[in-house]
Amino acid sequence: MKKVMVVTGASAGIGKEFVLRYLKSSKVDEVWAIDRDKEGLDELEKIIDTDIKKLVIDLSKQSDIENYKNELDKEKPNVVLLANIAGFGKFDHSENIALDVKLNMIDVNVKAPVSMIDYSLPYMKKGSKIVNVASCAAFQPIPYINDYASTKAFLLSYSRALNQELKYRDVHVMTVTPFWTKTNFFDRAIIKNQKEVVIKYDVMYNVSDVVDRMISDLKKNKEISIYGGLNKAQRLLVKLLPHSLVMKIWMNKQKYDGTPNIR
């Protein structure tokens, strides 16, 4: 039976880096690379030696995700690893973000990982692993990144509970909670030609370092992968401090005066 690793968001950023670095230390028969960017998948194919199945899928569309299920049902592979890495966010006051954008965010960040997992589980055996990339934003409510942070909070809670539920099958679920990381995430998150919402990032980590920690933690069967001193410190502080105070600190840091710039 063919052993495959399935990676969403595989054309760039954390997804692409994860494929490249994971294959350096682990062997699979085929990579199932999922992204809506066909050209990006073509470029990935050129730089890996492992066989690749390129699935051009828009994860905001359930009908597209069902194409993945159809491929599973047809080939019946052994899914040794599923990495749900695709996702996106928007930085702005909630009233400035169109409803269809918010719902699209929920589709990609929440509904897609849940669907991918449900479709994959029948093809996972003892020792298979699931990686869900959430965010450090999952640990607390964040004004002006509200919708994105809320989707990641769901993913974190869902993943941790699912890890317990799947122990009887020896299928491990790990959640990744990156801090600010140098990827193309910001190309979509920041609204062009508008005043930037986030003006202070504290630190910006390299994607290679974040992915190296992901892979190391995955091999150790950790429940949560957290890279970076500031990331770890923030997680601790938001557990100890009232979230009302955490939000106030965030607002002060970004110099929000409480008056929204409604467009």
What do you see in this structure?
This protein is α/β, with parallel strands linked by helices. It is built from 9 helices and 7 strands. It has helices at residues 13-25, 38-47, 62-75, 99-120, 146-165, 185-189, 207-219, 229-240, 243-253, and strands at residues 3-8, 30-35, 51-56, 78-84, 129-133, 172-176, 224-225. Strands 3-2-1-4-5-6-7 form a 7-stranded parallel sheet, sandwiched between helices. Helix 1 (13-25) crosses helix 7, helix 3 packs parallel to helix 4 (99-120) and helix 4 (99-120) packs parallel to helix 5 (146-165). 37% of the residues are buried. The mean pLDDT is 94.
Q: Count the helices. How many?
A: 9
Query: Helix and strand succession?
Result: EHEHEHEHEHEHHEHH
| Average pLDDT | 94
Please summarize the sheet with the most strands.
7 strands, parallel
Strand % is: 5-15%
Helix content: 40-55%
